[in-house]
Amino acid sequence: MDLNGKNMFQVVLFSILLIIVPMFYFPARFGLDLATGSFTYSVVEIIYYGLVFFILRPGASLMQLLQGAGVTFLYRVMIGTVFGCSLWAFYGMEFSVSLALGVSRYLPSILLHIAVAPFLMRPLVMPPAVSGPASRRRGRSRPTASRSGEANLTAQPFFPSQEPRSASRSGSGTSDSPVSRVSVGPEANGFERAVGYLGEHHAVLLAGVVDHEGLTMACFRRGEIDDELWAAISILFEETNEDVLGRVVAEARLKSLDLTYGTQRLVVARAGWFNLVVVANHEEDELLSIRIKQGAEMIRRYASERYGRLLSAGTEEKYVSDS
């Protein structure tokens, strides 16, 4: 459950409204009889919650839908209990009668609570998943070595650098030092050299090499930016735009994506079988664009030299070559 302050405040605020609004028209029933209270009605209610969550989050698993529906049902019962206690306090009714009305018998309030509850609880029980689209690519087979001595693409670790590199901040007076997951030196691989090369530009906040599953192969970070989150977001942007473009262009496959938001810029550039993800402060400077193209070419060349022999002809044409 996503129990952040903003979501909780919204739930509490609307819950108060759901309790107060039925109080204004009680005991009017708008032509509805009092419900008899049956377990069958509860099952239908839970199915309704699950159906709403399935429509709002079609990628959710059955277990997530059941958990969300169950929590929402308990929330609806809690709201009905508070409403019943309010009837007892303001109308002087017997406590058991008012409680039964609020939870299972007074249909105007119950139907209102049931209709609103899943939409109100969705941000808590079914939060958006930024890494979901990446999982849709997990079905694609990754190349493995034909011999025990050969490397494979699934075993490309990266390790935090013990000593952050000093920043090269030409034209900038800030003192933020970059925090890099790579130490670019003579023994650095092609991925690390590419992100280190991009990190030399003072506007770059994040430069990372991401595989088709959203896993980071090498990363340069400046400040407290979350590289794993941006890796997942880059896959989300790529797949979403390909899906939209694919409606008008058959088998559309993006080569690059360049977005500007506020004072920052996000670039996702395809580099062979991998993606180059860059988050930077937005500047009217073509030098960064040139560096991004050169960095993507470094990644493409390194991946082709190291992994090209592990790919079949069809896989190499699909993932490695952009021609």
What's the gist of this structure?
Mean pLDDT is 76; it is low at 130-185 and 312-323. The protein has helices at residues 5-25, 39-56, 62-91, 95-105, 107-125, 132-135, 190-199, 227-245, 286-307, 313-320; strands at 178-180, 204-210, 216-222, 256-261, 264-271, 274-281.
Notable characteristics:
single chain; 323 residues; alpha+beta; Beta-Lactamase; 2 domains; 6-stranded antiparallel beta sheet; disordered C terminus
Topology of this structure?
Blueprint: H1 5-25, H2 39-56, H3 62-91, H4 95-105, H5 107-125, H6 132-135, E1 178-180, H7 190-199, E2 204-210, E3 216-222, H8 227-245, E4 256-261, E5 264-271, E6 274-281, H9 286-307, H10 313-320
Antiparallel strand pairs: 1-3, 2-3, 2-6, 4-5, 5-6
Helix pairs in contact: 1-3, 1-5, 2-3, 2-5, 3-4, 3-5, 7-9
